[in-house]
Batch of 4 targets.
Target 1
Amino acid sequence: MAEACRRSGGSAGKSWKNGGIWRIIKQLGMASIKDPDVVEQFSSKLEEIRTKLLIQAMGEMMNEATSQFCQGHKHYMKSVLDTCSKKCKEDETMFETIEAYMEDLKVKSSVMKEKYTERPEIVEEIEDKERHKELIMQKIEKLKQDQAKSRELIHLQNKANKDRLKNLNKIKEIFQERLSLEIRKIQGEKLQFIFRNINHKNPESAYTFLLRINEEGVYQIVSCDPPLAQMEHLERRLQETNNFSAFLANARKAFVALYSATKTA
């Protein structure tokens, strides 16, 4: 500022020296400088020149200050614009990130919604499978109980059959002597009963029948040779009474009657 004033003052001084004084002198003419009016006019002119010079110097100073202010303002505005541009880019990047996040969240929400919609069906299917599994387990348990009962029943029947076979073996010894009866065990848990001494002409002639005990422990006649018409009745009576000794005696009587009938014929 001082430098500007100095430059302005120097410029104004030169201008004043070069033109101001000479114009005053010309205006005053040859008037005497000792005249009070002339002196006053001269002072007035000097004051006017000084005022113009000050105004000119102040204008130059204002122009220079304005220029510097404009340059500083431009630099400041450029810095502000750069900062705003950088901030805008950062904001755009952030907005893009937010938009991508929102889109991903939307997709995940849609997937979760679909899964939530399917969830009742999956739960119902699982519950159906659990109920089906429970029913299967109940059936398996029932089958286990039935198998245990069947095994127990088979065991008891086998034991009963063994007891019966043991009794038959005892009866065998008795009837072998009294009824000329031979008992043979045949493959398939069958017994063959052979009666002899029925045909007096041929004592070794055999009258036989096959007997078995079925799964239910019931006596059954498999075959009879020669056939007896009353064998079915004898079998039924044996099943009803379980009196095996009487059955054998009646079977022998039937064979004897058959032989006698044949002999008479």
Note: Strands lie at 181-186, 190-195, 207-213, 219-225.
Target 2
Amino acid sequence: MREKKIGILCIQESHLTHKHEAQIEVLYSRRLKVFNSRDPFHPGNSAGVAFVINKEMINTTDAEITKIVLGRALAMSIKWHNDKCITILNIYALNDLTKHPDFWDLISKTWLEKDLPQADFVLGDFNLTEEALDRAPDTWRSLYPMSRLFTFYSNTNTYSHLDWIYMAPQHKRNTHHWESCTTTIPSDHKMVLVRFIPQNAPFIGNQCWTWPLSLMNEKKLFNNISDLGSTMQQQMTHQLTHRSKASNPQKTWEEFKSNITAMAKKTTKEHLHKIRIRTKQLEEDIKHTLENETHNYTCK
């Protein structure tokens, strides 16, 4: 969540027991808040839906949780920007498609009985497909009508788009950076990400630059810095007895810091350029594979 800067993580098949929740609270309560709905019969082995909130980004004080269907449907209303709240419905639908009508009827009935606000987002693992192209007409599909996207890979080599994100029409223009990526924890589902930026959100400019940790093993860069440092030391030694407004240790030190920062930024830019090229190549290969009609795959 820290790496991807995720504010709200919606999990399906959480399989969290009360003991698991207590352990998470002890270990991560400073940074994370977990709201879980367990399966009433097999809490550690079946179903379960959860919200994981990044407390470093979002205030969880006023979060309201409503358990719609235990282990299958969980709603949350939470402040997102200033005094505005958003309501999210997290779904893990049944595998048996014949039970879906009753499942959704129960959700609708419970939603009305509890007088919940209109959902801003309905998302999760719906365990069914609809569109012929990738089996899913969610908001991502409306934005990318000609692209394929599979989020589930079964052990029988079937590919499906089972994980959807629906949203209220007024929010469509405020969503950006759609992404589907493999999770660090092994899973047969990909994680689907989207950034939601409210219309009146403040503009956040460039943050303070920090030295990338990836450069700590860059020998060529550190050799150049060492040479520059040696030159700086010689200059500062000379300036102790030949000091002026234009030439003094403070000015030399400032120039040294500016120079090594520029060197680090240039090296970082070169590294990122190589990474972006390689990433783009891989993405193009994946896209070509998915869009190739002769590719031998089966859609669930």
Note: Confidence is low (pLDDT under 50) at residues 132-137, 293-300.
Target 3
Amino acid sequence: MSGVSEEALQGTSLFRDINTDDAESQPTEIESMCMNCHDNCVTRLMLTMIPFFKEVIISSFRCDHCHWSNTEIQSVVHIQDQGIRYTVRIRSKDDLNRQVVRSDSAFTKNLELNFEVDEFINNLQKLKDVEEGFTLVIEDISGNSFMENPVAPQRDEAMTVSHFARTTEQDA
């Protein structure tokens, strides 16, 4: 049991905005073992809120001995009632200029090429240069992914957001 009273916690949040001037918003450091060389090291953890998205835990580990490192962002929210699908029509390089948060359960695909992103690494330069328009889809059965609307609060004419019911197999 913590020594902090319930009254002291009311109105406060464990998840704080990132602010370099606020000492309380700095990462928490905990001693941990390197999974590569088994030396004692430090893991840095920060509970924060991604604007227009969700609460997350950011963790960072680096071993000074063997130089192994690992950085992760983990969602701390539950699986949503419905999955989510972001579909955006890319017509110019400006259409690529948007923040994307993709959960572990999401997949990304390009409709014109008809296969998942990981399969067309060799074609990334053509996509990056937007030599031809294409449609990018991020589908997440957990409902915890996010794609920024760069013209918010106006409607993004290039993007549609839809929610869907998971299948029995996806719910398993």
Note: The helical segments are 6-9, 124-128, 168-171.
Target 4
Amino acid sequence: MTESEENNEISFTVKFLGRTEIRRPEGMQTLNKAAEILLNPDKNDKEKNKKNKAYLFLSLSAIDILDHKTKFMIHTCALDSVSFCAVHQTKPKLFGFVAKHLASDTYHCYMFQCKKFSHLVVSLIGDTFKASRKYEDIRGSRDLVVEALRLRIKALQKENDMLKRRLREKNSEETRHEDSDDTDAETSSNSQSDLSKTQVRFHSDGDRVPLIRNN
């Protein structure tokens, strides 16, 4: 058993007995039936006749099966597609898991043989599945918080734009009032000036009453 801390992966060296299509997605009877088929394969079925040494990788996202010699990927199953995992009831060295094949919408049972770690592998698959669900829940909660904050920021920006528009309108209105007051003051000043120009006063020595000449 090896563990990679950087990638959060655990790997086991096992003997891969193969996979077979099944009807039911879970249950010990399903696992026992799959083991019987894979341990007594049809001679013409090349895939079920293969019993290769392989690496079984567990991560928070998938279960990967790699050829031990070439390191080529044989199968990969998304962790959320796994519906069942258990050790064989009468053959403790055998264990397997059931996963949904997304492309064909069918279920396959993957069987393995391990001399020492079969129960440990099954336990770790279960723990990894739970950890993955918890991680998805946490990530989902964070996504909801981020979305709520995004909407809040958008609402605040909209409110800010509205306040800016109202402030511009208010400033524009005050400017118009000031211009109007300046115009009235100028008109009044001009009127007084015109009046002073048109009302000319004449004085004489004998008559102190001012005479007004209208233009």
Note: The two ends are 118 Å apart (CA to CA).
